[in-house]
Protein backbone atom coordinates (compact mmCIF):
# COMPACT_ATOMS: atom_id res chain seq x y z
CA UNK A 1 0.00 0.00 0.00
CA UNK A 2 1.23 3.49 -0.90
CA UNK A 3 -0.24 6.67 0.59
CA UNK A 4 0.27 10.05 -1.08
CA UNK A 5 -0.68 13.08 1.03
CA UNK A 6 -1.35 16.28 -0.92
CA UNK A 7 -1.91 19.99 -0.36
CA UNK A 8 -2.85 21.64 -3.65
CA UNK A 9 -2.83 25.36 -4.57
CA UNK A 10 -6.11 27.23 -4.08
CA UNK A 11 -8.54 27.82 -6.92
CA UNK A 12 -7.36 31.45 -7.16
CA UNK A 13 -3.69 30.48 -7.60
CA UNK A 14 -1.94 31.13 -10.94
CA UNK A 15 -2.16 28.41 -13.58
CA UNK A 16 1.63 28.08 -13.54
CA UNK A 17 1.54 27.15 -9.85
CA UNK A 18 -1.23 24.62 -10.43
CA UNK A 19 0.57 23.09 -13.41
CA UNK A 20 3.78 22.75 -11.40
CA UNK A 21 1.90 21.03 -8.57
CA UNK A 22 0.23 18.46 -10.80
CA UNK A 23 3.44 17.84 -12.75
CA UNK A 24 5.22 17.02 -9.51
CA UNK A 25 2.32 14.90 -8.30
CA UNK A 26 2.34 12.96 -11.57
CA UNK A 27 6.04 12.21 -11.10
CA UNK A 28 5.20 10.72 -7.71
CA UNK A 29 2.33 8.64 -9.08
CA UNK A 30 4.50 7.32 -11.92
CA UNK A 31 6.87 5.79 -9.36
CA UNK A 32 4.13 3.79 -7.62
CA UNK A 33 3.59 0.15 -8.68
CA UNK A 34 0.25 -0.20 -10.47
CA UNK A 35 -0.43 -3.51 -8.72
CA UNK A 36 -0.32 -1.84 -5.29
CA UNK A 37 -3.18 -0.18 -3.46
CA UNK A 38 -2.45 3.49 -4.03
CA UNK A 39 -4.27 6.01 -1.85
CA UNK A 40 -4.29 9.71 -2.67
CA UNK A 41 -5.67 11.95 0.05
CA UNK A 42 -5.52 15.44 1.47
CA UNK A 43 -6.49 19.03 0.74
CA UNK A 44 -6.96 19.19 -3.03
CA UNK A 45 -8.69 22.60 -2.83
CA UNK A 46 -10.97 21.14 -5.51
CA UNK A 47 -14.77 21.26 -5.79
CA UNK A 48 -15.83 18.31 -7.95
CA UNK A 49 -19.60 18.87 -7.74
CA UNK A 50 -22.42 16.43 -8.51
CA UNK A 51 -22.18 16.30 -12.31
CA UNK A 52 -19.96 13.38 -13.33
CA UNK A 53 -20.52 13.31 -17.10
CA UNK A 54 -17.29 12.09 -18.66
CA UNK A 55 -15.93 11.15 -15.25
CA UNK A 56 -18.33 8.36 -14.29
CA UNK A 57 -15.48 5.81 -14.21
CA UNK A 58 -13.74 7.59 -11.33
CA UNK A 59 -16.45 9.57 -9.52
CA UNK A 60 -20.08 9.31 -8.54
CA UNK A 61 -22.82 11.93 -8.32
CA UNK A 62 -22.74 12.62 -4.59
CA UNK A 63 -20.36 15.58 -4.51
CA UNK A 64 -21.27 19.06 -3.25
CA UNK A 65 -21.85 22.24 -5.23
CA UNK A 66 -20.49 22.67 -8.75
CA UNK A 67 -17.13 21.74 -10.22
CA UNK A 68 -14.60 24.59 -10.34
CA UNK A 69 -11.28 24.87 -12.22
CA UNK A 70 -9.39 23.03 -9.49
CA UNK A 71 -12.09 20.38 -9.46
CA UNK A 72 -11.74 19.83 -13.21
CA UNK A 73 -7.96 19.54 -12.91
CA UNK A 74 -8.28 17.10 -10.04
CA UNK A 75 -10.90 14.99 -11.82
CA UNK A 76 -8.78 14.83 -14.99
CA UNK A 77 -5.76 13.81 -12.92
CA UNK A 78 -7.72 11.02 -11.24
CA UNK A 79 -9.16 9.89 -14.58
CA UNK A 80 -5.69 9.68 -16.14
CA UNK A 81 -4.30 7.73 -13.17
CA UNK A 82 -7.42 5.55 -12.72
CA UNK A 83 -8.12 6.73 -9.19
CA UNK A 84 -11.60 6.71 -7.61
CA UNK A 85 -12.70 9.91 -5.81
CA UNK A 86 -14.27 8.28 -2.76
CA UNK A 87 -16.25 11.24 -1.43
CA UNK A 88 -18.36 11.36 -4.60
CA UNK A 89 -19.49 7.74 -4.44
CA UNK A 90 -21.18 7.35 -1.07
CA UNK A 91 -24.51 9.12 -0.39
CA UNK A 92 -24.41 11.13 2.84
CA UNK A 93 -26.06 14.17 4.33
CA UNK A 94 -24.43 17.50 3.53
CA UNK A 95 -22.90 17.75 7.01
CA UNK A 96 -21.05 14.50 6.36
CA UNK A 97 -19.65 15.67 3.01
CA UNK A 98 -18.42 19.23 3.62
CA UNK A 99 -14.75 19.20 4.62
CA UNK A 100 -13.92 22.91 4.88
CA UNK A 101 -15.47 25.82 6.80
CA UNK A 102 -14.85 29.49 6.02
CA UNK A 103 -13.24 31.84 8.58
CA UNK A 104 -16.65 33.43 9.30
CA UNK A 105 -18.10 29.99 10.11
CA UNK A 106 -20.82 30.40 7.48
CA UNK A 107 -19.61 28.71 4.28
CA UNK A 108 -18.68 25.05 3.84
CA UNK A 109 -17.33 23.18 0.82
CA UNK A 110 -16.07 19.73 -0.15
CA UNK A 111 -12.44 20.31 -1.10
CA UNK A 112 -10.60 17.53 0.76
CA UNK A 113 -10.66 14.11 -0.85
CA UNK A 114 -9.85 10.45 -0.19
CA UNK A 115 -9.09 8.48 -3.36
CA UNK A 116 -8.09 4.88 -4.06
CA UNK A 117 -6.88 2.92 -7.08
CA UNK A 118 -9.74 2.00 -9.42
CA UNK A 119 -8.87 -1.71 -9.34
CA UNK A 120 -9.39 -1.68 -5.57
CA UNK A 121 -12.76 0.09 -5.69
CA UNK A 122 -14.48 -2.76 -3.82
CA UNK A 123 -12.00 -2.38 -0.95
CA UNK A 124 -13.27 1.15 -0.27
CA UNK A 125 -16.12 0.77 2.22
CA UNK A 126 -16.89 4.41 2.88
CA UNK A 127 -15.74 8.03 2.96
CA UNK A 128 -17.35 10.34 5.50
CA UNK A 129 -16.61 13.56 7.39
CA UNK A 130 -16.15 13.25 11.16
CA UNK A 131 -17.42 16.60 12.39
CA UNK A 132 -17.00 15.72 16.05
CA UNK A 133 -13.22 15.40 15.82
CA UNK A 134 -11.66 18.32 17.72
CA UNK A 135 -8.65 19.03 15.48
CA UNK A 136 -8.41 22.84 15.76
CA UNK A 137 -8.64 23.52 12.02
CA UNK A 138 -10.97 25.08 9.45
CA UNK A 139 -11.07 21.61 7.88
CA UNK A 140 -13.14 18.72 9.21
CA UNK A 141 -11.60 15.29 9.57
CA UNK A 142 -12.25 13.08 6.53
CA UNK A 143 -12.38 9.35 7.24
CA UNK A 144 -11.83 6.74 4.54
CA UNK A 145 -12.61 3.11 5.33
CA UNK A 146 -10.58 0.54 3.40
CA UNK A 147 -11.02 -3.20 3.90
CA UNK A 148 -8.09 -5.34 2.82
CA UNK A 149 -7.55 -9.06 2.55
CA UNK A 150 -4.03 -9.71 3.75
CA UNK A 151 -2.11 -12.95 3.55
CA UNK A 152 -1.49 -14.64 6.86
CA UNK A 153 2.18 -14.55 7.77
CA UNK A 154 2.03 -17.13 10.55
CA UNK A 155 2.11 -16.70 14.29
CA UNK A 156 5.22 -14.74 15.16
CA UNK A 157 5.07 -13.47 18.70
CA UNK A 158 7.65 -10.88 19.60
CA UNK A 159 9.27 -11.38 22.97
CA UNK A 160 9.13 -8.11 24.92
CA UNK A 161 12.57 -6.69 25.59
CA UNK A 162 13.55 -6.76 29.25
CA UNK A 163 15.98 -4.33 30.83
CA UNK A 164 17.99 -4.87 33.99
CA UNK A 165 18.03 -2.37 36.85
CA UNK A 166 21.60 -1.24 36.21
CA UNK A 167 21.03 1.79 38.44
CA UNK A 168 21.37 -0.59 41.38
CA UNK A 169 25.05 -1.13 40.62
CA UNK A 170 26.31 0.86 43.59
CA UNK A 171 27.29 0.25 47.17
CA UNK A 172 26.53 -3.19 48.61
CA UNK A 173 24.66 -4.32 45.49
CA UNK A 174 27.73 -3.64 43.37
CA UNK A 175 29.85 -5.87 45.61
CA UNK A 176 27.20 -8.61 45.56
CA UNK A 177 27.17 -8.44 41.77
CA UNK A 178 30.97 -8.77 41.54
CA UNK A 179 31.01 -11.71 43.96
CA UNK A 180 28.18 -13.54 42.20
CA UNK A 181 29.76 -13.01 38.79
CA UNK A 182 33.17 -14.15 40.05
CA UNK A 183 31.65 -17.38 41.39
CA UNK A 184 30.09 -18.08 38.01
CA UNK A 185 33.31 -17.32 36.13
CA UNK A 186 35.48 -19.68 38.19
CA UNK A 187 34.18 -22.88 36.52
CA UNK A 188 34.81 -21.32 33.11
CA UNK A 189 38.55 -21.18 33.76
CA UNK A 190 38.80 -24.98 33.65
CA UNK A 191 37.06 -25.32 30.26
CA UNK A 192 38.93 -27.15 27.56
CA UNK A 193 40.67 -24.97 25.00
CA UNK A 194 39.34 -27.17 22.22
CA UNK A 195 35.88 -25.64 22.59
CA UNK A 196 34.98 -23.22 19.82
CA UNK A 197 34.50 -19.47 20.26
CA UNK A 198 30.70 -19.67 20.06
CA UNK A 199 30.58 -22.11 22.96
CA UNK A 200 32.84 -19.89 25.08
CA UNK A 201 30.74 -16.84 24.27
CA UNK A 202 27.52 -18.65 25.16
CA UNK A 203 28.89 -19.61 28.58
CA UNK A 204 30.14 -16.07 29.31
CA UNK A 205 26.81 -14.58 28.25
CA UNK A 206 24.90 -17.01 30.46
CA UNK A 207 27.07 -16.05 33.43
CA UNK A 208 26.30 -12.35 32.97
CA UNK A 209 22.57 -12.76 32.36
CA UNK A 210 22.11 -15.13 35.31
CA UNK A 211 23.97 -12.71 37.60
CA UNK A 212 21.92 -9.74 36.41
CA UNK A 213 18.65 -11.60 36.98
CA UNK A 214 19.69 -12.74 40.46
CA UNK A 215 21.25 -9.52 41.78
CA UNK A 216 19.72 -6.65 39.79
CA UNK A 217 16.34 -7.87 38.59
CA UNK A 218 14.30 -6.37 35.73
CA UNK A 219 13.01 -2.84 35.36
CA UNK A 220 9.29 -2.36 35.76
CA UNK A 221 7.61 -0.64 32.85
CA UNK A 222 6.29 2.77 33.82
CA UNK A 223 3.39 4.50 32.11
CA UNK A 224 3.46 8.28 32.13
CA UNK A 225 0.48 10.46 31.37
CA UNK A 226 1.12 12.02 27.94
CA UNK A 227 -1.29 14.89 28.47
CA UNK A 228 -2.03 16.93 31.61
CA UNK A 229 -5.44 17.34 33.23
CA UNK A 230 -5.28 21.07 32.51
CA UNK A 231 -4.93 20.35 28.80
CA UNK A 232 -7.83 17.89 28.95
CA UNK A 233 -10.02 20.53 30.61
CA UNK A 234 -9.16 23.07 27.91
CA UNK A 235 -9.95 20.54 25.18
CA UNK A 236 -13.34 19.84 26.75
CA UNK A 237 -14.09 23.55 27.04
CA UNK A 238 -13.14 24.09 23.39
CA UNK A 239 -15.37 21.20 22.33
CA UNK A 240 -18.40 22.76 24.07
CA UNK A 241 -17.73 26.15 22.46
CA UNK A 242 -17.40 24.51 19.05
CA UNK A 243 -20.76 22.76 19.52
CA UNK A 244 -22.42 26.09 20.38
CA UNK A 245 -21.00 27.73 17.25
CA UNK A 246 -21.95 24.79 15.03
CA UNK A 247 -25.56 24.75 16.23
CA UNK A 248 -26.07 28.44 15.35
CA UNK A 249 -24.62 28.49 11.81
CA UNK A 250 -26.39 29.22 8.54
CA UNK A 251 -24.80 27.50 5.54
CA UNK A 252 -24.07 28.76 2.03
CA UNK A 253 -21.66 27.61 -0.67
CA UNK A 254 -18.90 29.67 -2.22
CA UNK A 255 -15.38 29.33 -3.56
CA UNK A 256 -12.81 28.44 -0.85
CA UNK A 257 -10.23 31.05 0.03
From TrEMBL:
Highest rank taxon of the organism: Eukaryota
InterPro entries for this protein: Endo/exonu/phosph_ase_sf (IPR036691), Swc5/CFDP1/2 (IPR027124)
Transmembrane segments: none
This protein's name: Craniofacial development protein 2
